[in-house]
What does this fold into?
Amino acid sequence: MALAAREGKEKAVKAASSGGYVDERLAWLYDQVPAYVSREDVEFFVGEAVACGGGGWRPAPGPKALPSASGSPRAAVLELGCGTGRVLLPTARAGIEITGLDLSEAMLGRLRAKLAAEPEEVQRRVRLVHGDMCGFDLGRRFALITIPFRPFQHLITVEEQMACLTCARRHLADGGRLVFDVFNPDLGKLADPARRTEAEDFSGVRLADGRTARRTHRFVARHQAEQYNDIEMAYYLTDAEGRTERVVHAFPFRHVFRYEMEHLLARCGFRVAKLFGNFDRSPFTDASPQMIFVAEKSEGAQEPERTSKP
Ligand SMILES: C[S@@+](CC[C@H](N)C(=O)[O-])C[C@H]1O[C@@H](n2cnc3c(N)ncnc32)[C@H](O)[C@@H]1O
It folds into this structure.
């Protein structure tokens, strides 16, 4: 294959595996999805950032104990896959210096616009980087690296997963922590043929431009051997005259199992300090909706050798 054609194909594959957040309409919709707006993880991640700012780690305080936005920046945090700043902005408002990295220019564009409306002291705490979490070099280290709301599951191959974890480790200060969530895989749901049919997530949501949104999701294809499904989320946007626009968010999504993730982390020089089952810090059980890993750098660990193809 000619070089240009091959590069074009690689770029297309990367765009798909970065979660499909390439369309500006999707970035605009992201901030209006009820389940994302009300997701109960912001307090958790802001709490982690605040807790790592005072030196050693301690349990995160509740929301009332969060510091005011005044005062000097505390911890330096790196958020991988920061999106439109759903977690990043509240973290910066809490007085934390934070760098956000994302592969989607559309998502970063929305974040930049929102940041411009923040007070100057909040703006000063934020640095945004357009980049791939599987290969970045920011030339500095951080007390905490977070990957909130499952961007790690947009990494489809073991090579990508290990590249991300290795990069993250290189950017962590001694004693630093990597904190991220993935969903707890439910084998019944993942294999359910009924999920090939569109199922409604929400309807009747009034959007900022006056239209009304409905969304469905379905599994388009299942790749059991490679542990990922092709997912399609369809937004139906209806205006006052009844005209409907259909906007599709299509992406492959990888599931990881608890011990697979623990082995992966160990292979990349981390040890699991905590595993929570939800953002209320409850322990991980069969019924937990999330797997939230709090990982620390293992001392003396070497960087892993490149893995074989999965
Ligand atoms: C579900 S959103 C989460 C955004 C944000 N962390 C939040 O909690 O709202 C997933 C984000 O991961 C980003 N992403 C996916 N793959 C990526 C990669 N390889 N490198 C950097 N960002 C990536 C997407 O562009 C998207 O903004």
Remarks:
- The chain has two domains: 39-62+73-184+257-297, 187-254.
- Residues 84 and 113 are 9 Å apart (CA to CA).
